[in-house]
Structure formats: C-alpha cells, structure tokens
Write a structure and sequence with these properties.
416 residues; alpha/beta; Aspartate Aminotransferase, domain 1; 2 domains; three-stranded mixed sheet; 15 strands; pyridoxal phosphate binding
C-alpha cells in the first residue's frame, strides 16, 4: 500500500532523531510515590529522588488539595460533561476563576484545559479576531522575545500575519524592544508585546518593569495602544509571595497567563485580566469555547492551592523553597559545576553542551536513584544541551547533598 512509503519516511525521521541523541518518547514509567517528606517516585520498583518536576511547592501531594479534589468530584462528577456554553458552567469552575482573579488583583479570570491551549487561543484572538465578521482588526504589530515558549510561537503562527507585522526582540533586551516600537510608530493601529515571565530553560526572569515602562511610553504612538501579555507559568507560585514575576518586578501586565499545573500542584491553564478582555475571550477563544474545561476535581484542587498559598502555610513553603535554592547554588559553586549563575528560580540548569553527555549523565544519576531530565535540541539551541535540575520546597538538605554527591561522582566519568 502506498501509505507504507509514508510510514517508512516517518521511521527514517524517528531513526534520525534517535541517532542525534535527542529523542524524548522513552519516558520513565512512574508507578507510584513513597510517603517520605520528599516523596520519591517508584521506578522499576525502586524509590527515586525527583529533581525534574515543576511541582515547586510540592502541592500535588498536599492533603488539602487531595481532599478538595475528592469533595469536588463527589459533588460534580469526574468530568465537566461538555463545553461550558453547551452544558453550563459548574460552580467549582467559576469559584476557581474568581479566586484566581482576586489572587492576581484582576477583574476576572478564565480557565483553559492547559496553559498551552490558553496561549494559542488568547494570542490568536487578540491578533486576528474570531471570524471574518469580527470588529477586531488584525492591524497589529506583534513583538515577541526571541526565546519565548513554543506555545507563544504557535499562537502567533496561527494568526498567519504578514512578516512585516511580526517582530522579535533580542532575548531580554529591552533596548531592542524599544527600537522595534520606535521604528514601527505610525504603521499599525496597535501593538502586542508577548513574553515569558520566567524562561524555563535557564530560569531567567524577564525585565517586566522596564518593558512596562517602555510600553507605556510608546502607548500613545499607536492609536489603539499597546498591550503587554505575559506567560508566567513558571513564575506563579514560585517567586515573590507566589504571584510570580509581577511580585519580583513590582509591575503588572495587561494579560497574565498562568498554569495550575506547576507550582500550584493541580492542572489546567488560565488567563486573568480586565473584565472586557475576559468577556471578549469567552466569545472568541477557540480552546475555551470548543474544548472541555478541566475536571471538577482538578478545579477543586486549584481552589485549595490558591487558598493555601495566600496563608501562612503557603508562605512557609515559599521560604523553604528559597532556602533550598540558596543551598543548592552554594554547593554547586563550591564543587565547580557550570550553572546558569543568574537563576534564583527553582530551575537550576547544569550546562553541558553535548546531547550524548547529557544522556549519559541522566543514565548515571538514574543508576544512583536520582531522576533528572536532559534538555536537548530543538527545545534548546544546538550546543546548549543541559540538565534542568528543578528544586522543590519538599526537598530536604539531605536530598540536595545526595544530588551534589552523585553529580561529583558522575563528573569523574563524564567531563561536564
């Protein structure tokens, strides 16, 4: 059959990826977790230290989230039933949105099945409108940091704008952003600046305050103004008092995209903004209108996470997380490891630069019952391969010492 020829092409591409040592499909199978203070994953029947999770506060194991998830599932069922405009909105989803809006000091919020789905739909809606009848024109200049997340890149691509309406500013280079805005003054009705709050490969924190200042300075140069959209999936719950990059930078974006699936220990994405933006997105965002929301249990867990983070227990977890980051950075420096020195985020990348060596290091650490992940092309540029070590508030000092010892021993086998 002719399709066998296409299957052969697919197999050749898989073989190419495997030979480049950048394959990602052979994930470790986790069959459970221990009940240690820092829960270890059970892999092949062995307890393994986890240093590759986005669960920065350890909330996915927290009793309050588990209880809230159970209560919401018991009350509303295990699934949403259908999309919200067809079967209605469950009260637990609306309560979550209200809690998120209050937590971030915004008018309202809207929950999506994931942050990826949120970015895709929100960016498209703000650029291109909903349909050919939309009053929202696509006379917009979209300006994106060159290292933005794939979900942002795809959201811009979906809008299919002409090349002259798409601009990239050099990574975290606010002067270059200003150059783009200045050069395009008078050419477009509005501008949309899009950036990650925290760049997940190196744990870098964007200069939001300076970006906000520049956006405000040039706002009058564009008849419909300039909007700042920030995806702070890795910042929320991990930085400041939990509000993310906006806490650190003491500034606010116009549209904030977050996730419940990282530091907040649950799942799903969300957007929070002024009421008019949220109302518009409920009418235009395809992955909200045509896709099921998160499960009721997941929403219940999300509510519990927000309530916990706002209280003393959540702030204690944030302090413990920061203490762990400081301890790890100190021990890594003492042992001469090449880290991303500027990261004071739970993401602490060990820079290696070669896909083969990163894979070998992952295997050596796994032999010592420590789980980490190699990050290779195309997630990062060629030659920028790394081990992305991710810290949690639940890690003990003994856990971190165990990791450092294992890395020292591995360094004797692999030069990194």
């Amino acid at each position: 059959m002719s399709k066998s020829k296409f299957f052969s092409v697919l197999q050749s591409e898989i073989d190419r990826i495997d030979s480049a040592k950048t394959s990602k499909r052979n994930e470790k199978l986790i069959t459970g977790f221990t009940d240690d203070p820092s829960p270890r994953a059970i892999i092949n029947g062995k307890p393994v230290l986890v240093f590759n999770s986005n669960d920065y506060l350890g909330l996915r194991f927290h009793p309050a989230l588990k209880e809230a998830e159970h209560e919401a599932s018991s009350k509303f069922g295990t699934g949403p039933g259908a999309v919200r405009f067809i079967s209605g909105t469950l009260a637990v989803h609306r309560e979550l949105e209200e809690k998120l809006a209050a937590f971030h000091g915004r008018d309202d919020a809207i929950v999506f099945s994931s942050a990826f789905a949120a970015n895709n739909a929100v960016i498209f809606s703000l650029i291109a409108g909903q349909s050919k009848d939309s009053l929202v024109s696509n006379d917009v200049l979209v300006i994106s940091d060159e290292l933005n997340h794939r979900s942002i890149i795809d959201g811009i691509r979906l809008a299919n704008l002409p090349k002259e309406q798409r601009a990239i500013f050099a990574h975290m280079d606010v002067d270059d952003l200003e150059r783009v805005l200045k050069e395009n003054t008078g050419k477009f009705s509005r501008a949309l600046i899009i950036t990650d709050g925290v760049f997940s490969m190196l744990g870098e924190i964007q200069h939001l305050q300076r970006i906000r200042e520049i956006a405000d300075r040039y706002d009058c140069s564009y008849p419909q103004g300039i909007l700042l959209l920030v995806d702070d999936a890795h910042g929320i719950g991990a930085l400041g008092k939990g509000h993310g990059t906006e806490d650190i930078e003491n500034t606010k974006s116009d549209i904030l995209i977050g996730t419940l699936g990282k530091a907040l220990g649950s799942d799903g994405g969300y957007v929070t903004a002024d009421q008019v933006i949220i109302d518009y997105l409920r009418e235009s965002a395809a992955t909200y209108i045509y896709s099921n929301s998160i499960s009721p249990g997941t929403a219940g867990a999300g509510i519990a996470a927000i309530e916990l983070l706002r209280g003393n227990d959540g702030q204690k977890l944030l302090k413990k997380l920061n203490d762990n980051i400081a301890l790890f950075k100190k021990m890594a420096a003492e042992n001469g490891f090449t880290m991303a020195a500027d990261s004071w985020h739970p993401i602490q990348p060990l820079l290696i630069g070669d896909p083969e060596r990163t894979k070998q290091l992952v295997a050596l650490l796994m032999d010592k019952n420590i789980l980490v992940t190699s990050i290779n092309y195309p997630v990062v540029a060629k030659g920028k391969d790394e081990i992305r070590i991710q810290l949690s508030a639940l890690h003990t000092s003994e856990d971190i010492e165990e990791l450092i010892t294992a890395l020292k021993e591995a360094q004797e086998t692999i030069a990194f």
